[in-house]
Amino acid sequence: MSLGKLIERLLQLVPVLLGVSLIVFVMMALTPGDPVQIMIGDQNITPEQEEALRRGLGLDRPIVERFFVFIGNALQGDFGQSFYHRRPVADVIAERLPATIELSLVALIVALVTAIPLGVLAAIRKNSIFDKLATVGSLLGVSLPGFWFGILLIMLFAVQWNILPVSGRIGYSSEIETITGFLLIDTLLRGNLPAFWDAVKHILLPAITLGLPMTAILMRVTRTSMLEVLRQDYVTFADAKGLSRARVLFRHALKNALIPTVSVAAIETGSLLGGNMIVETVFGWPGLGRLVVESIFLRNYPLVQAAVLLYAVIYVGLNFFADILYTVLNPRVKL
Amino acid sequence: MTNLQRLLLASAMAIGPVAPAAYAADLVVGFTLDADTLDPANHRKRETETVIRNLYDGLLTRDPNMVVVPEIAESMTQVSPTVYDFKIRAGIKFHDGTMMTAEDVKFSLDRVVVEGAMGNGQTSPRQSLMGPVASVEVVDGDTVRITLKEPWPILPAMLPNQQIVSKAFVERVGSEGLATEENGTGPFRLVEWRKGESIIMERFPEYYGGATDIAPVGPACVDRVIFKIIPESASRVAALLAGDVHIINELPAFSIAQVNANSGTHVMTVNGTRSFFVAMNLEGEYFDDPLVRQAAAHAIDKNLLIDKILGGNAAPINGILSPDAFGASDLPVYGYDPEMAKKLLADAGFPNGIDVVMDTEGAFKDTAEAIASLLTKVGIRTTVAVGESAQLTSKWRLQGKAPKTGDMYFSSWGNGSLDPFDIFTPTHRTNDRGNSAGYSNPAVDALLDAAATELDVAKRAGMYREAELMINADLPYLYLWVPQDIYGVSDRLSGWKPSADSRINLHDACLN
Amino acid sequence: MSMAAATPAADTIFRRNLASFMANRLAMAAAVVVVLFVVMAAFAPWLAPQDPYETDLFRRLQPPAWVEGGEWGFLLGCDALGRDIFSRIIYGARISIFVGVTVIVLATGIGIIAGLASGYLRGWVDVIISRIVDILLGFPYLIFAIGLMAMMGPGLGNIILALAYKEWVIPARVVRGETLAVRELEYVEAARALGASPRHIMLREILPNILSPVVVVSTIRMANVIILEASLSFLGLGVQPPMASWGSMVSDGRAFILEAWWVSTFPGLAILLLVLAINVASQGLRDAFDPRFHE
Predict the structure, then answer these.
(1) B212 and B332 together in one domain
(2) In terms of domains, do B364 and B441 share one?
């Protein structure tokens, strides 16, 4: 990937981020509901006290002015204060982001681990019963409403068999000093194996619920690209040379077949990151999605603005990453 | 397919035995919402206050029966209608080991009442909870004097909403630091706040003991307390049944039987403070007619709804006040009488019935639909429209700033202090914040205003009774019920009782 | 406009593809299931044993017929207001399928126009449309829909709009890509040389030849839209009562799952079955119609 390409990509980001900010602002301006009224709830307040509160939140300024102030501050890395947390939204989001990323990555691993073997085997035994079962089975994952499936998993594994926890990220037996914010990594870095195992147990059910829908997509891509690779000359040639079938498959074919899978996975990770508020709610997972949805309902404007911008950056970043992967890994593109 | 089905059904039907919780001295509370902040003066949410109350103590507090008792204050004296003196207890330590003084109390209350005192030009969102406080002064070294602009008899009832912070600590870390760190005088101190997931606290060994009127007095019983955030109610109940948590709040009424049937858990209830009602748009095309409103009142079988939907866990009301509130009294009842309802509707000029819409939030869809079907049976053909709470608030709570649209609004109003000032005034005074019906009666306004500053308790109660009788006759709302707050608890828990203000104070709670 | 209008070859290809789809027994079975659900939705008033909106608090959370306390007149039990779940599922099919179909038809319509214009006209049209697509893709789907619902208010029409506002981007990208691939092909060049208007070329020459992948993508997305509608219900932004989509039934019933599993389990299974059938059928369509998947 050339430097020019990189700069071009970065420049593309600018109109996207501006557009996203503008759309969010317009939507919020058109949305009924007053943050101050929501905050006060069922309590008495005098009009003067209400105005003081409104001034403190900066809501007494006209919307257009607020937009430009937001853009100006955001360019300097200041995204404002969360109305409810009364702290910089950047901090609040940063606290929640690792949990969301960790869950999404583990979900991705769950999906890859299921999808790749299924896809490869389905391709090798094309049109067999196994092929059909694997296809239908993986489609089952996309067809389940996540919140329903998640609660069923809780009923089964947490309540009935009591082998996995109902919710949360980790237990309370030891204090967790975070390094990276990813508990699975931090516990290992600290050499705390019981805590690592505990974190694994906590993330398992939410990751399966989140990852299953992706399995179908990845399996399909793997199967198709595997079929394509298997038809190519060098595989036929290797076959003819008498190399063992398994060796051909795993040394040569698989490596090439996985390129599209990895690229698609990178792009789909974006939808995992932005789509896990439901799993987070069901499993009490302290991620960003739940926070953003709550913030929309509470009209916590600064947090929604900053979070949506972040999602857009992540989305563009992942697509960029997928492009690089594709160019770097794919010999045909490189040639 | 069949295998999957069997799996799903088996899992959903049979609930296995409960294993003991992992760590003996950790009391875990399965809680609906995370705290927004740990700064006692910088939030406006019940759940946040519940968490903070275990870290910070206040001048006054409430016992489980909602009686206001001194906590950090040793005693309270009302010097004049507008002046209150609080003598501060000696020997109270902050969690950092420093001694608490009257200066800290003044500083804490000033942060709330003085405009811009939070720093950065921000005013505490809790300012309005302190009413007409004019000033807070330290007199005689250990006495704090609160002076009011006008008499405000509910000051003692409202003071438990404020907690005392350390002046030196706040000056060091600032309001921003106080959002995530704490240095209170409460029974527990903060160990770790895993944002969005849990708040872990441990016993403060040098705790002064808390309110002397609430036994036992001394450091907390359990080693650690953990508020674990589980927003989804089915997951919260599952966590209790699985033994992961020992107390859960907001247990749904239909889960009571199951929690009681499960070995190792049971249900505890307490009379709540939130009144439910249906606001009728008095400016609307049908409900401007008192006969239509009376017809609606007679159409509703409150006892059936309480019995079937709320599992019997609610007290019916005939006015806005909970039976437990100050000034509540027996009022005339609009009994369930569908024939009478049909007749009243015909008398109002609608022998063929009317078509109306009832707004509500998603959480109350079932109840609103049940009410709608009762109304429909007498000819008030009601469709339920579910809206998002922020949308509905801006549609119905207009404070007279715009003409009101809509027919009916199934809603509620909380009254944590159990004082009518907090609920009667906002919902019934002309153009007040929560007056969804658009009710306006100068006589009621005058009574509410006078009662707000009346110091004679008996006279004040009489005023509220008089106002209740007026609104009972005018019927701007269909007054429904005050539900009980329902908690699920482990059998191992002792020394804890739910409280009507929905706080979960864990100072005296033990795990066996 | 028939698919055969443009080139004689398209017709033959279509027939061959159709035959290939019909030969796929699994996909055919799935297609039959989908048709059965559509028939069920169409004939709901004749099929439902009970009035789906009739509440009866004395039947609150009544279990299915074969469980103790159940009644055969209420086969799958009753919900929190004593309404027959079986009848509600039959009626709910109407809403779920209606949302799925309407969103996809709207989105595909807009997507085709935008994609054709972008891919064929190129220039500033392409730049503007591509930017809008980029911006919309930057929003997480559900968060965008939630924001729109908060802005527009509740209701079936708004759910459809909230989903369609972003959904059109997906067919638009497919159509643009396909259009770019065929715009320089001989028959398009020929039409251009003969002086055909861009409108004619886009709609008569290009569209019929790129329709297959669009149809395939649309059916897959329809399955997704049904799940998305269920997710909006979960977040409290579902259809208005007394209407019920399957998503809103699962969502309303999930609170009871420990005590009355039937309230959310049966509508959940209904979603699972329909969406799975659509997915399997569309996978079959893709194998048969999308040339890139021909081996």
Answers:
(1) no
(2) yes
Please list, in sequence order, all residues whose beta carbon lies within 8 angstroms of the beta carbon of residue A76, skipping any fewer than 6 positions away. Answer: none
Per-residue pLDDT of C225-251, as tens digits, reads: 999 998 898 888 888 888 888 988 998
Residue B173 has pLDDT above 70, yes or no: yes
- A176–B180: do the CB atoms touch at under 8 Å? no
- pLDDT by residue (tens digit) across C74-99? 999 999 999 999 999 999 999 999 99
| Residue B354: CATH number of its domain | 3.10.105.10
**Residues B279 and B207 reside in one and the same domain:** no
Q: Which residues of A touch B23 (CB under 8 A)?
A: 172-173
Domain boundary among B207, B229, B251: B229
Chain A: residue whose CA lies nearest to B232: A282
Q: Which of A136, A275, A308 sits opposite C141 (nearest CB)?
A: A275
C contacts of A146 (beta carbons < 8 Å): 227, 231
Q: Enter the pTM of the model.
A: 0.89
Look at residues C11, C31, C3 and name the one whose alpha carbon lies nearest to residue C284: C31
Residues of A in contact with C279 (CB under 8 A): 139, 142-143, 216
* Structural domain boundaries, residue B299: 274-484
B435 within domain boundaries? yes
Give me the total of CB pairs closer than 8 Å, taking one residue from chain A and one from chain C.
135
Task: Identify the three-state secondary structure at position B68.
Answer: strand
Q: State whether B308 and C57 contact (CB < 8 Å).
A: yes
What pairing do the DSSP bridges indicate for beta strands B224-229 and B380-387?
unpaired
- Specify whether B437 is located in the same domain as B368: yes
In this structure, is residue B504 part of a structural domain?
no
What are the tens digits of pLDDT across the range B152-168?
A: 988 999 999 999 999 99
B465 and B347 in a single domain? The answer is: yes
Chains in contact with C, where contact requires at least 3 CB pairs less than 8 Å apart: A, B
Q: Give the model confidence (pLDDT) of C35-60 as tens digits.
A: 999 999 999 999 999 999 998 999 99
ipTM of the predicted assembly exceeds 0.95:
no
Site of tokens 């969102």: B125
- Condensed to tens digits (0 to 9), the pLDDT of residues B401-441 reads 888 899 999 999 999 888 999 899 999 999 998 999 999 99
B397 and B284 housed in the same domain: yes
> How close, in Å, is residue C237 to chain A by CA atoms?
11
Query: B170 and B117 share a domain?
Result: yes
Which residues lie across from B84 on neighbouring strands?
A: B78, B146
Query: Exposed (0-12), middle (13-18) or buried (19+): which is A77, by Cβ within 10 Å?
Result: exposed
What residues of B are in contact with residue C238 (Cβ under 8 Å)?
362, 386
Measure CB to CB from residue A143 to each of C131, C134, C275 and give the nearest one. Answer: C275
Contact state of C265 with B241 under an 8 Å Cβ cutoff: no
pLDDT at C183 over 90: no
Instruction: Report yes or no: C151 at the B interface, CB cutoff 8 Å.
Output: no
Test B390 with A299 for CB contact under 8 angstroms. Answer: yes
Please indicate, yes or no, whether residues B209 and B278 belong to a single structural domain of this protein.
no
Mutate to test the interface with A, among B128, B245, B258 (most CBs of A within 10 A): B128
B165 part of a folded domain: yes
Beta-carbon separation of C242 and B363 below 8 A: no
Residue B98 lies in a domain: yes
Q: Return the CATH number of the domain spanning residue range C33-281.
A: 1.10.3720.10
- Contact yes or no for B232 and A284 at CB 8 A: yes
Please tell me the total count of domains within chain B: 2
